Amino acid sequence: MKLNFFGEEEFSTHFGQELVFKKFEKSVAKMFDATLKILEQNRKLFTVSVNFVSENEIKELNRVHRKKDVSTDVLSFPNLNIKFENIDDIIMLRKITKEDFKIDLCLKTKTLNLGDIYLSPAYVMKQAVELGNTLDREVKYLLLHGFLHLFGFDHECEDDKVIMRGFEEMVLPQKMEVEDSVEVYDDSPLIIEKTAEELLAEETVGVAPKRDPKLKTKTKKAK
């Protein structure tokens, strides 16, 4: 997977005393790879962008895209044009086709752009203190949460929330150290026999949650 990080200055301004940007990048990439393995996705197939922004910027994004004029911790903007209507859909598996990413193919890298995650370090710093979480765990949990939103996971109702939380716990159990939890799901390498370009040439290009009813398209909006 190609993972793009933006906003190093914003990250370092607020997290610099506890987290090292380059080291953190690698750790998050490993966590996302672990998540893709659990979801049975090909790790070479996708591109994701992580953006560290100011509290004012994320407030504006929240106002424009969610009609909520307040700051928040993390926002996701998925490009996957499917919507799951039943909690069982997200447990089953179906093939994702190129049609699910009509305008989100990166011609340069030959990967599918899952979407963007925006996180406000200033907001998250305060939230970690309030919740009594370590900064490392709080940031990784929020990025994982945002990453799952890009695949269609949601928490609009309690049942969906339970499903999403279950996948979060598989990658980042509360009672385990972050690095150890990632290693649990990255201890055996995923064998990739085809490149992303070869996969994109085929009719189907990946695996994701399956559903029986017709897929419902949705507009691109923040989660």
Could you write a compact summary of the structure shown?
With 223 residues, the chain is an alpha/beta fold. The protein contains eight helices and seven strands, in the order βααβαββββαααααβ.
Which tags fit this structure?
single chain, 223 residues, alpha/beta, Collagenase (Catalytic Domain), 5-stranded mixed beta sheet, two-stranded antiparallel ribbon, 8 helices
Q: What proportion of the residues form beta strands (DSSP E)?
A: 15-25%
Report the radius of gyration as a whole number of Å. Answer: 17 Å
Largest sheet: 5 strands, mixed
Count of spatially separate domains: 1
Dominant shape = globular
> Average pLDDT across residues?
75
CATH superfamily: Metalloproteases ("zincins"), catalytic domain
Q: In sequence order, what are the helices and strands, one letter per element?
A: EHHEHEEEEHHHHHE
CATH uppermost class: Alpha Beta
CATH architecture: 3-Layer(aba) Sandwich
The residue ranges in which pLDDT falls below 50 over 5 or more consecutive positions are 175-194, 203-220
Please give a structural write-up.
There is one protein chain. This protein has 223 residues and is α/β, with parallel strands linked by helices. The protein has one domain (2-209): Collagenase (Catalytic Domain) (3-Layer(aba) Sandwich). Helices cover 41% and strands 17% of the residues. Strands 1, 2, 3, 5 and 6 form a 5-stranded mixed β-sheet that branches. A hairpin with a 4-residue loop joins strand 5 (105-106) and strand 6. Helix 5 crosses helix 6 (158-171). The longest helix has 18 residues, at 21-38. It is globular, with a radius of gyration of 17 Å. Mean pLDDT is 75; it is low at 175-194 and 203-220.
